[in-house]
Amino acid sequence: MEDEAENHDGIRAHFPLSFGKQSKSQTPLEVIHNTTLRSQPPNLNPNPKLTDDDLAIGPPPPPPSADDDDDDEPLVGPPPPPRVGAEVTDDEDDDEDDTPFRIPLSNEIVLKGHTKVVSALAVDPTGSRVLSGSYDYTVRMYDFQGMKRDLSSFRQLEPFEGHQVRALSWSPTAGFFLCVTGSAQAKIFDRDGLTIGEFVKGDMYIRDLKNTKGHITGLTCGEWHPNKKETILTSSEDGSLRIWDVNDFNSQKQVIKPKLARPGRVPVTTCTWQREGKSIAGGIGDGSIQIWNIKAGWGSRPDIHLQSAHTDDITALKFSNDGRHLISRSFDCTLKVWDLRQMKQSLKVFEDLPNNYAQTNIAFSPEEDLILTGTSVERDSAVGGLLCFYDREKLELVSRVGISPTRSVVQCAWHPKLNQVFATVGDKHQGGTHILYDPTMSERGALVCVARAPRTKSVDDFEVQPVIHNPHALPLFRDQPSRKRQRDKILKDPMKSHKPELPMTGPGCGGRTGTSSGSLLTQYLLKKGGMLKETWMDEDPREAILKHAEAAEKDPKFIAPAYAETQPQTVFADSDSEEEK
Known about the structure:
The protein is mainly β and 581 residues long. Helices cover 10% and strands 28% of the residues. It has nine helices and 30 strands.
């Protein structure tokens, strides 16, 4: 045994210490998450009634020992009751969080890749894949389970060449997604980005929109049915909303024409489903909101019609899950909360929310106690793109979070399973998707891909693979190439496959030959008028030439002078007709 050990040590000494499989050192998660910590933004409190404690994000500093006592005397008696809205579970959590809402904003990662503003966002119900559409005409697909720390997309699509991506929506089963662009045709893709089909386009010369097979101008919004996997809803600039069946791309199920104060075509800027799919809402270009209840025999007449809901185009509508409220966002820099039981007047109007993009949306928190929306960057303002959170019950501002100092926030979402906040930003030069999370509150999603280091390059990546030729690949053993493809190509060429025209036979006039003596219109008219006499057609060519023999003999010009000495007497052959006689 000792000899074997000595032999092993002797052989091992000839190899470097790095030889063999070695375990990689694991980077602690705390170090990884420290690299994604967000910098503390400046104070963005626009409401003097709210204190900094109400707008604080994350765990607040521990309270002083004598917070409620004016004097320096120690506290006597039981501790004061906790603040209303604070969650107190154990003694260890008493000093962790003292705010009524816990928003995951401590860490941040950015999904880059777009060259313009990101105008569409969709996170599948399972929280594993993210779709982002942009004004650069592309859709990028991100997978948290397969994405490394470099945060690169695994697929890039261009649904319709030259058209902006305006809306993305996942199916309830997360197996397909809807893509709405500036074209008149929406497309359906599967989970891996393969095209399933596109809906038919209508006839733009038909005036009545109910008689067209589809939209005739660019789409503005689209959303999949929340429960039915075969039904989707789209809105368009042609002034109509349409319900489609994904099993039949050539026909539509329902055409909805909004109620207008004046006849004409006013674009429908946005649309949305109610949670159970029992009603739909549409934002009209004249600033009105119209709601239709889906029931037996329903038509285009809206059940609820708000004539002057906003003073400008509406960019987003959102139903609450409990069916109590409807939230609307508009170009007039406002966000309004409506009570569906009494829609005559809005419950609350939140102003000073700049909006420069037609895709600026609204989202709810998982418990729907918060409303969040993004703001755009104004030209002369020092404030960048913000993400604003509002209390749904108290109808007041909770917090404003700075996302980008120079780029506008367009789309936002708060995924209930991941407990992570998504916000898309961008301008004319660059766009991206910001993901805000908290390692202590969030699950999966960004936590999975941030902790996964990219694959290191190995020797195999630089190894030159040898080229192996089989005998039949050499020119000596190669079969004669087929000429069929070349012949088919020649037949499709109009120049090479043109059949030569047959020569035209028969008498003519003026250098043109006709099939008969009177085939040309000019010849026919001249003959009828007596101005054209075709005497040469019945005359012998030899006799016609000999008529000029006497004049040529007296005054030779061309050939005769050359033979004046050698052949003084011109000899002509006799006529063939005389020889035959």
